[in-house]
Request: fold
Amino acid sequence: MPQDLPGVDEERLIDTHAHQPTSEFLHDAGGQMMEDAASKFGTNLETWDYETMREEYREAGIGRAVLLGWDAETNTGNPPVPNDYVAEVRDEYPDFFVGFGSVDPLKDDCVEEAIRCVDDLDLSGFKFQQIAQGFDPSDDAHDELWSTIEDLGVPVVFHGGNSTLGAGSPGGRGLKIRHANPMLIDEVAAEHPDLQILIAHPAFPWEKEQLAICQQKGNVYMDLSGWLPRYVDEQVLQYAGSLLSEKVMFGTDYPMLRPEDWLESFAEDTEYDEETQRKLLFENAEEFLGLN
Ligand SMILES: [Zn+2]
Reply:
């Protein structure tokens, strides 16, 4: 691997947060709110195939990636990245991709779809993006969904903190960032102690709340995706190397952030010992995803 991480085993790294570099995610599901994000951050919405993605990860020394589904259809009007499609892509690269489904909590059949994802499609967990999906996870209306996933015995990823979707547009395209306040996830975690929860991203501007929850709730974890390490809140980086060294994981938010760039910043801008690097880059994720 090109980065200067001598104590880290090549190919064992796990990216806990990857989206499709294809039109299914970037154009169809992303729609106008994704174009806002891209123009705000000076990127384009170019697409490429999974073979190119696999090769890019191989070159960065990463052996596995969690590929996330997306269904925010009710709130955004955009089509989902279907769960069958996620499973299909996973089946093409079964040693590389771990597939996470997505169900739209505002759809009447979300509980049935969650069961189908695990029982029929063999997906390994679920991803929720409360800002795009427009729901409050602590609302009792969703309790049956959390109980169902808890019973299915697979983990969930919730979005944490602000989102770039809709950035700079009037009203932010109607998206509400308060739905991704980790304090709402604290409620879910308290009522569903067997539900394993990963709060994705340093949850700006609520990183302190996120750290408190990860520390107090045995079933809550976090990842460092969506931000290059050099921009991550100092206290988050400090906790990742101490109190939460068993709880924090590596993730990119591909294709918005590229693995080589993330790992380069991790190698240059953080000062973890080799044991901690191994935990953050793959051991914690192996444990959380049950890959051991
Ligand atoms: Zn993401």
User: Anything to note?
Assistant: The longest helix spans residues 274-289.
